[in-house]
Amino acid sequence: MQKVSNAHAMPDSSNDATASGQSSPFLELPGELRNRIYRMATVSRPRAFGIDNHTGLTEPGLLLASHRVRNEAIDIFCCENIFLTLTPDYDASVIMKWEPLVDLRRKTHDLGLVRAFIASSAASCTPNWTNLLKWLRSYHNGDTTARIPPLSAAHSKQSTESLVIGGMFTIVSKMMDQPWVKVETLLKEHRYILIRLDGRWEEGTVAST
After folding, report:
1. In angstroms, rounded to a whole number, what is the distance separating the alpha carbons of residues 70 and 34?
2. What's residue 181's pLDDT?
3. pTM score, whole prediction
4. Residues 148-160: what's their mean pLDDT?
5. What pLDDT score does 15 carry?
6. What is the spatial distance between Cα 143 and Cα 36, in angstroms, rounded to a whole number?
7. How many Cα atoms are found within 13 Å in the side-chain-facing hemisphere of 43?
8. At what angle do helices 180-197 and 129-141 cross, to 10 degrees?
9. CB within 8 Å of 114: residues ≥ 6 apart
10. Rounded to 5 degrees, what are φ and ψ at 52?
11. What is the SS3 string spanning 93-145?
């Protein structure tokens, strides 16, 4: 998975020379040891790596150290983290911007999905049916793999609203081979549940094309 060889890792003096012109002692360490350091510096466990809605994906400082270090550590960063982001108003446009940068690496290694997390706070997540339906349609079209996680022990504190929406994404995932119009009809039935939870879900609509 990593670009670092576990043996015979050689320093690259052209890209990673120190100010004195000498190669970095760090890059002379065995590749396996460098991998361990990269994981310590770039993998956020047990917590997920957060994505800021305004600034996007903020990379760990280590990835900016040099071209050589970045090339060796970037796969560990992209493939071994879980990336979570808040999506106010259920607007997935932020996800759509940064997801390809992460997902490109993950697809290369046939790894899991990039996940999105919706905060249960109404102040940070305002009901918006139009945006949610756009997100669900993008998910159905394969334009994004980001979704609201389904009910699980790991998300036992999810709000009822988030659980309903997580179930809607699960429905879409099971109907990828069905035309969107058919999927949308089923999703609209769940909208009534959301409206019972919060009347603001009654606002907004998206016409099928």
Report:
1. 12
2. 96
3. 0.64
4. 66
5. 46
6. 34
7. 14
8. 150
9. 83, 95, 99, 102, 103, 106, 145, 146
10. -80, 135
11. HHHHHHHHHHHHHHHHCCCCCCCCCCCCCCCCCCCCHHHHHHHHHHHHHCCCC
**Lowest mean pLDDT: which of 20-29, 106-115, 180-189?**
106-115
Quick one: 139 exposed, middle or buried, by C-beta within 10 A (0-12, 13-18, 19+)?
A: buried
Output the six-digit token pair for 28: 């002379």
For residues 76 and 175, give the distance between their C-alpha atoms in angstroms, rounded to a whole number.
32
**Token representation of residue 133:** 């339906």
**Average pLDDT, rounded, for the chain:** 75
- CA dist 119 and 57 (Å) reads 18
Length of the chain, in residues? 209
Least confident of 18-27, 143-152, 173-182: 18-27
User: What are the structure tokens assigned to 60, written together?
Assistant: 């760990």
Q: Averaged over 115-133, what is the pLDDT?
A: 66
Cα–Cα–Cα angle for 6, 7, 13, rounded to 5 degrees? 105
Which residues, 6+ apart, have CB-to-CB distance to 202 below 8 Å? 129, 195
Question: What contacts 16, CB < 8 A, 6 or more positions away?
Answer: 23, 24, 27, 66, 67, 68, 69
Question: Prior bond to 46 cis, omega within 30?
Answer: yes
- The DSSP secondary-structure symbol of 166 reads H
